[in-house]
Amino acid sequence: MTSRYKLNAAARQGYIYIAGPYVGSAPSHDYTAYFDIDENINEARKWAARLANDGISYFCPHMNSCHMEVIAPKVTPAFWLAMDMRFLGHATAILMLPCWRDSNGARAEF
User: What pLDDT does residue 1 have?
Assistant: First the structure.
């Protein structure tokens, strides 16, 4: 398989953690930001699909906690970031999505 990613053997044995913005330009982390959040989830999903199509394992926190701000509104953003950091701690590589610098969470993950 030919891949457009330059990964060493160790990186291919583990998984890539996908990091990028989750909330939108409005800093709310609730139902009012639903569509901005949805755009960011879809962007992360596109990158996850690229990795999957190239046979590369990944963890995408955007899809793991997709719209949980609506489903479990009492759970704080800090909980999700802490859980994501646990997954990141086991990743062999990190993929920073476009605009990651605009995200407090992605900057913490970096």
Answer: 40
Nearest one of 16, 72, 70 to 47, comparing CA atoms: 16
Per-residue pLDDT tens for 56-68? 999 999 999 999 9
> Rg (Cα) of the chain, in Å, rounded?
14
Residue identified by tokens 């990613």 is 5
How many CA atoms within 13 Å lie on the side-chain side of 39?
Answer: 10
| 96 bridge partner residues | 19
How sure is the predictor about 27, in pLDDT bands with cuts at 50, 70 and 90?
Answer: low
Distance CA 22, CA 99 (A): 11
Question: CA-CA distance, 91 to 57, in Å (whole number)?
Answer: 10
Of 73, 77, 61, give the one whose Cα is nearest residue 31.
73
